Amino acid sequence: MNPNVNADPAELAKFSDLAHRWWDPESEFRPLHQINPLRLDWIDGLAALKEKSVLDIGCGGGILSDSMARRGAHVTGIDLSVKALRVAQLHALEAGTANVEYREISAESLASAQPESFDVVTCMEMLEHVPDPASVVKACHALVKPGGWVFFSTINRNPKSFLFAIVGAEYILQMLPKGTHEYAKMIKPSELAGYCRAAGLDLAATRGMEYNPLTRRYWLSADTSVNYLFATRKA
Q1: What residues make up the domain containing 193?
Q2: I need a surface site. Which of 70, 87, 104, 229 has the fewest CB within 10 A?
Q3: Contact indicator for 204, 197 with CB cutoff of 8 Å
Q4: In-domain check, residue 121
Q5: Pairing outcome for strands 201-212 and 217-221
Q6: Is the torsion defined by CA of 78, 60, 192, 106 positive or negative?
Q7: How many domains does the chain have?
Q8: Which band of pLDDT confidence, cut at 50, 70 and 90, is reported for residue 2?
Q9: Is the torsion defined by CA of 149, 33, 58, 23 positive or negative?
Q10: 163-195 pLDDT, tens per residue?
């Protein structure tokens, strides 16, 4: 891999090995399927996706990309996992999803090639898997048009998130494969807010995401102590 690419080969391999299971709602990706409607409605409610040009960074197998296209957006999903992209493309073909395309390219490379090309940029559950998250945030700012929206979701770094997102989700409840998240790579909201300010993105809204293991239900709330979402805008 190009040493200048902002990606961890071990992280790419981890998700590539599971690529064939992306669209199985009972697989390791079940949490993504369950939270996707919440994320989609929140994004659509703020950015009004219909007819918008949307970029989904770290799209994986295309769960969010596909659903945004079905809301009427023109979606480009990018990732560096070839296997995941093939799964995304195959699903789009099988499901007959229009207005979605997938590309193997980094956010930074696309930002150099196509600055200010998108009305909306999403970067969900991705920042905690790259060596330099600030670089991705900067690329998001470069990619979105002035006045456009950039959405992030990631995991807080504190004792509660370690207990819930790693010990609970990966080891006790086995909702995610062991090793999905590394505590040191988790990002505090204050840190992500700093990356956004430095890049020139204004924070417009935040939400937390909670989970009840008994009812197996997710919901959005004001509690950002574990999973959280940022909505930002480019001036």
Answers
A1: 9-234
A2: 104
A3: no
A4: yes
A5: antiparallel
A6: negative
A7: 1
A8: low
A9: negative
A10: 888 887 776 777 777 877 888 999 999 999 999
